[in-house]
Amino acid sequence: MTDSSKTAPVAPRHQHSFTRHGITVQDDYAWLKDARWQEVLHDPSLLDADIRAYLEAENAYAESVLGHTSPLQKKLVAEMRGRIKEDDSSVPSPDGPYAYFRKYREGGQHELFCRTPRNGGAETIGLDGDALARGHEYFKFGGSRHSHDHKRVAWSADTKGSEYFTIRVRDWDGGDDLADVVEETDGGAVWSRDCTSFFYVKLDDNHRPMQVWRHKLGTRQADDVLVYEEKDTGWFTHVHESTSGRFCVIAGGDHETSEQRLIDLDHPEAPPRLVAARENGVQYSIADRGDELFILTNADGAIDFKIVTAPLSTPERANWRDLIPHRAGIYVLDHDLYAGHLVRLERANALPSIVIRDLTSGEEHAIAFDEGAYSLDAMGSYEFDTTNLRFAYSSMTTPSEVWDYDMVTRAKTLRKRQEIPSGHNPADYVTTRIMAKADDGAEVPVSLLHRRDFKADGSAPLLLYGYGSYGHAMPASFSTNRLSLVDRGFVYAIAHIRGGTDKGWGWYLDGKREKKTNSFDDFAASARALITANYTAAGRIVGHGGSAGGMLMGAVANRAGELFAGIVAEVPFVDVLNTMLDDTLPLTPPEWPEWGNPIDSERDFRTILSYSPYDNVAAKDYPAILAMAGLTDPRVTYWEPAKWIARLRATMTGGGPVILRTNMGAGHGGASGRFNRLDEVAIVYAFALWAVGLADRTA
Asked: Closest Cα partner for 474 from 491, 492, 496, 493?
C-alpha cells in the first residue's frame, strides 16, 4: 500500500522518560505536547512553531498520499449533500402561545431558531446561525432556551472549537442582543420564572464545569453570584430544567456516582436543596411531579436501573420506594415525566422500546418495532401538562421518522419523515443482525446494512464501526452518508461491543477498567464472525472509530491488525497512560472511574500500560491508518494522535502508510457547518475505498 515516492515526515525523537510505581516508560515524542496547551485552546496562533511545522508537514503528507482521491471526495460530497434536504426544518414544539422549531435555509451551513404562533401563522427568526457565523472560521451553537414569558432567548456559541461557549441574550421581537455577555461557559442556561436572571455553568482554567452561577440581566458577569461549587475535580457539573419546569437541577457526577440539587425557579436566590447525598457507585437522576420525585437509579444493586419515588419534601435515600423494580437484562436508560404519565426508554438485547405508564391506574403499554435492528428515542417536550409524546424512529434502511403519540388514546400521527432529495428506496437495502462469539463466550450483536443484491461470497469490502466506552450504546439508526459506501459495494457494520450499554449496564461494566480489553477482543471477534459468515474477508475490512472509539482502533491495530485493510481513527484517545497521569488535563480526573487512576494505583498503571495504543506500538506490519485530529480539541488533545503516528512510523516494519491529518481550525467535533463536515466524512470514505483498492474505480 505504501507509495515510496512520497516521503513521510519523521518526527524528531527527544529523549524523555519517566518512572512511576518502579516502572520506567519511554516517551520520546512528549515534545509534541505544547507546554502552553491551555493558552493554545483559547488562541491557536500561540502554538509552538516547531510543533506547528510538524503538524503542517503531516498535513502536506496526507494530501500527497490521498490527494489523488480529490475527484472522488468531491463526488462523495456531492452525493451526500444531494441526500440532505437543504431547507429542512424540525417539527414545531408547542409551548404556551408559540411553537418553536429549527430550520436551515437553502445552502445554509447553520441552523435558524424560529417560532410561529401556536396554531399557525407567520414565522419569526430569533437566531440566524448563518449570520452569526459570518466572519468566523469556526462557529457552533451551544444551547438556546427561550424565556418563560417568550420575550427573550438565551443562546450560546463557540467560535474557536475549544468548547468554551459565550452566552448572550436576544430580544425575540427586536432581534438585538442585550449588553449581557457571559463567557467561558458550557453553553447551557436555565431561566428563573420571572425571566430576570438565569443559571449557567462556568468552566475553570482546566476546562472543567465545576461552578454554577446566577446572572442577573443588565449586570456584568463580574457581578454574578456563585450558587454552587463542586470541590471534587473528578466530578463534572451541569444544569437543566426539571420535567415540570419548576426547578433548576444541578446535576453532578462522574462515570460511577451522581448527586443532584434543586433550585426553586420561583425563588432563584434560595440556596440549592440536596436530593440525596452522594454514595460511591450510586447513580440517580430525577423527574418531578407535584410533591413527588421519580428517580431513575442503580441503588440497591439495580445493575440495569430501576425507578423509585420519594417525597419532594424529604427526598433522601431512606425515603425511596420502588415503583418500577429492577429487572436484570432490561436496561432502563432514561425516563421522562408528564402530568399524568411516566415514560421510560428501555433496551433489552440491543433493541429499544418506549414504555408508558398511566400514573392514575398504573397500567402500562409499550411502543416497539419489528425490524431486526432499529433506533428509538423519546424527544421530550416544553410542556408538562400534555398527553402527547413525541418520539423518533429509524433503522439502518428506514429514514428518520418523527411521531406524535397520544398516551391516552394510543393514536399515532406521523409528523415528519426524513426526505432524501436525491431519492432513497428502503427496499433496495437490507438491515440484519448477527451475533459474534467472543473468546470468553460473550455474544456480541453486530448490526449490518447492505444492498439487497449483495452476495455473501466473502469478496465485499466492509466498514466496521465501534465505540465501546462510557456506557454509550451505538444505535442502529439511519445515516444518509453511509449509503455512499454501501452503494459502492460495501457492507456497513456496527459492533455493539462491551463498554457500551447495548445489552445493559453489565455489558458496560464488562468493558471498563481491568476489563477494558474485552472491548478490543469483541471488536476483533466481530470482524472474524463477519469473515466466517462470508460478509467479507480478512484484509477487506476497514475499522472506524472516534474519540474513545479511536482508542479502540489503536488497540485493535496493535492486537489484530492483520484483519484490516485500513483503520480510521478520528480524534483518537490513544495516549491513554500519559493522559490519565496528567491531572491538569480537562477530562483526566473525571475519567479515572472509567479507566483507572494510574497516579495512585500501580495495578491501574500496569493495566493501562498493557493496552494503551501509543505504548504498545510494535515492530510489525500495520494496516493503512488515517488519524484525524483537531488542534483546539479539549477532549482528545491534538498531540495524542500526533505522537501515535510518529511512533508508528518509527517502529512498524511494514504495511501502512500511516497518515495524520490535523484540522488546524477545529476541535473535537471536526469542522463546523453541516456541509463543511461532509468534507471530512468524504476524506474518511475516500480513504476506506482506497484502502480496499476501489478509489480509482469509483471516482
From this structure: 496
Q: Among candidates 438, 448, 428, which has minimal Cα distance to 372?
A: 448
What is the residue whose three cell numbers read 518526527?
11
Pick the catalytic residue from 34, 521, 604, 633.
Answer: 633
Q: What is the pLDDT of residue 673?
A: 62
- C-alpha span between 97 and 94 (Å, rounded): 8
Residue 344 pairs in a beta bridge with 335, 355
* CA pair distance 224, 213, nearest whole angstrom: 6
Cα gap 345→353, rounded to integer Å: 6
Q: What is the CA 98 to chain-centroid distance, rounded?
A: 31
633 noted as active-site residue: yes
Q: Whose grid coordinates read 456541509?
A: 675
CA distance 184 to 163: 9
Which amino acid would we find at residue 151?
K
d(CA 575, CA 552): 12
Range in 135-139, 397-401, 587-591 the model is least confident about: 587-591
Integer angstrom CA distances of residue 609 from 466, 516, 579, 644: 22, 12, 12, 14
Q: What are phi and psi of 576, to 5 degrees?
A: -65, -45
The string of DSSP letters for 638-676 reads THHHHHHHHHHHHH--EE--EEEEEETT-BTTBSSSTTH
Sort 353 into a burial class: Cβ within 10 Å, 0-12 / 13-18 / 19+. Answer: middle
How would you list the strands of the sheet with 306-311, edge to edge? 284-289, 292-297, 306-311, 321-324
Rounded to whole angstroms, the Cα distance separating 34 from 586 reads: 15
Q: At what angle do helices 548-560 and 517-532 cross, to 10 degrees?
A: 60
Amino acid identity, residue 495? A
pTM of the predicted model, to two decimals?
0.86
Q: Which of 197, 484, 547, 612 is catalytic?
A: 547
Q: Are 344 and 335 contacting, i.e. CB atoms less than 8 angstroms apart?
A: yes
Cα–Cα distance, 672 to 664 (Å, whole number): 12
Please give the biggest Cα pair distance in the chain: 74
For residue 507, give the C-alpha cell.
455489558
Q: In what order do the strands lie in the sheet with 412-417?
A: 374-378, 388-395, 401-406, 412-417
Whether residue 616 contacts residue 577, with contact meaning beta carbons closer than 8 Å, is answered with no
Coil, strand or helix: which one is 107?
coil
Strand 165-171 relative to strand 152-158, pairing = antiparallel
The residue type of 567 is: I
pLDDT tens for 449-502 read 999 999 999 999 999 999 999 999 998 899 999 999 999 999 999 999 999 999
- Tell me: cis bond preceding 623? Omega within 30 of 0 counts: no
86 close to 106: Cβ distance less than 8 angstroms: yes
Q: From 255, 299, 234, select the one nearest 511 (Cα to Cα).
A: 255
Task: For strands 462-465 and 541-546, give the pairing.
Answer: parallel
Residue 697's pLDDT is 66
State the residue for C-alpha cell 479515572: 592
- The active-site residue out of 207, 326, 424, 668 is 668
